[in-house]
Amino acid sequence: MPKKSKLKTPEWILEGYGSEEEYNKKKGIKNKKKIGKTFKVRECPECGSNQVNVVLTGEEGKGAREWECKKCKWNGRDVLEKELTEEEFMKYLDEHGEDVI
Fold this sequence. Notes:
The protein is α+β, with helices and mostly antiparallel strands.
């Protein structure tokens, strides 16, 4: 039977911080995993539309990472990406008039 590993004291306690949030703030750690299902939504930085598609150019297999907005014809690389929980995503769909099956 394999040996169980021992629990390790978290770094924020070892370094003397009062809470994990304080430790993350001082160290510049921003990623906090969301619990449950998450959905990614891409939006145009110009008009805020969600009708954004990737542009396929160049050789096959080499991603150009270019994006195009179908609404305002914007082209660029820095598209806005939001990560929503399931509840936030359902609200988002309701606001944009999308049909939910």
